[in-house]
Amino acid sequence: MSARVTTTVAELRELLDSGRPPVLLDVRWSLGDPHGRDHYEAAHIPGAVFVDLDRELAGPPSPEGGRHPLPDLADLQAAARSWGLTEGRPVVVYDDLGNTAAARAWWLLRWAGVPEVTLLDGALGAWRAAGLPLESGSRATRHAANAPKPDPDMPEPGGVVLRPGGLPVTDADGAAQLAATGLLLDARAGERYRGEQEPVDPRAGHIPGAVSAPTGENLAADGTFLPPEELRKRFEDRGAGDAAGIGVYCGSGVTAAHQIAALAIAGFDASLFPGSWSAWSADPARPAATGSLPS
After folding, report:
1. In contact, 104 and 28? CB cutoff 8 Å
2. Are 100 and 252 in contact (CB under 8 A)?
3. Residue 237: what pLDDT?
4. Is 220 strand, coil or helix?
5. Helix (H, G, I), strand (E, B) or coil at 185
6. CB atoms within 10 A of CB 253
7. Which of 204, 216, 219, 282 could form a disulfide with 195 if both were Cys (CB 3.0 to 4.6 A apart)?
8. Is residue 52 a contact partner of residue 124, using CB atoms and an 8 Å limit?
9. What mean pLDDT comes out for the span 43-49?
10. CA angle, 177 as apex, 175 and 181 as ends, to 5°?
11. H-helix or E-strand spanning residue 276
């Protein structure tokens, strides 16, 4: 993966003032908090469009697909057009959680063939820390069926065409194979990996052979990504340097996307297991390991 992963606050300001401003997406979401749109409406970067992770960045949950399976391509394309995505226009994505949710939109759009998608490094916190303005209220996405007349507060519908396959994906069998012959990283918090806590999924523990690499450890104290050399050492210490292949999973394929972004910054390509632990643990035929060791 050679495309750029992040955009700084200073660079975003220049882009927004340029003749080619990006589409700016606000993915306000966190596990157990259903009020993302409310947080967005309270304060967001001017011009940003709210993206609903549960409804627009995932398909319907199921035991086989997990809590956040990949959305149907036609549905994702319709959503992307409603956000204003057009061919050749850059996209910048952010949230208010170190980009651990926004990375899902970054990954999906890159997977779907959108070349210029970046994460705002430091997320909304970096924008706030720079003393830059925020706006409130609703900048709702526009769907032709419920927009009988132009509204200046809504983005113009785009005409982007999505083409899947831009980033690699694996399934449960592929994840098991990576755990056995390559490197499979578990991006969840350590206590969930060890099986000490499991707040949402059917069983506690981790995929046998997977290595713990909590997503939060990709970030510096200010919420920006660690420097590339530090990220590279972090992943090399877990075996990435000589791995035959790398895969990542988390609870439901959200924070694992952030891990893939961090791996890309460090110079490594990795596959996403979208079903992640939510799908694996729902299958009684799949084994679970507990404790701090991979197996």
Report:
1. no
2. no
3. 98
4. coil
5. strand
6. 30
7. 204
8. no
9. 97
10. 125
11. helix 276-280
- What is the chain's alpha carbon radius of gyration, rounded to the nearest angstrom? 19
Cβ proximity of 283 and 63 under 8 Å: yes
* Per-residue pLDDT at 145 exceeds 70: no
pLDDT, mean of residues 168-180: 98
- The residues, any chain, with a CB within 8 Å of residue 118's CB and separated by 6 or more, are 4, 5, 6, 7, 90, 91, 92, 93, 106
Distance CA 172, CA 274 (A): 9
d(CA 125, CA 129): 6
Pairwise CA distance, residues 56 & 98, whole Å: 20
Backbone angles phi, psi at 170, to 5 degrees: -130, 165
Q: How many CA atoms lie within 13 A of 133 on its CB side?
A: 5
The answer, yes or no, to whether residue 149 has pLDDT greater than 60, is no
Q: In this structure, are strands 117-120 and 91-94 parallel, antiparallel, or unpaired?
A: parallel
If residue 277 lies in a helix (H) or strand (E), which one and from where to where?
helix 276-280
Active site residues per annotation: 250
What tokens appear for 147 in the block?
Answer: 């927009």
Give the span between the Cα atoms of 182 and 177, in whole angstroms: 7
Q: Give Dmax (Cα) for the chain.
A: 59
Of 237, 220, 231, nearest to 261 (Cα)? 231
Distance in Å from the first CA to the final CA of the chain = 30
Quote the CA–CA distance of 81 and 62 in Å, as a whole number: 26
Separation CA 125–CA 220 (nearest Å): 12
**Contacts for 108 with CB less than 8 Å, ≥ 6 apart:** 57, 70, 71, 76, 257
At 150 the pLDDT is 41
Provide the 10 A C-beta neighbour count for residue 38.
10
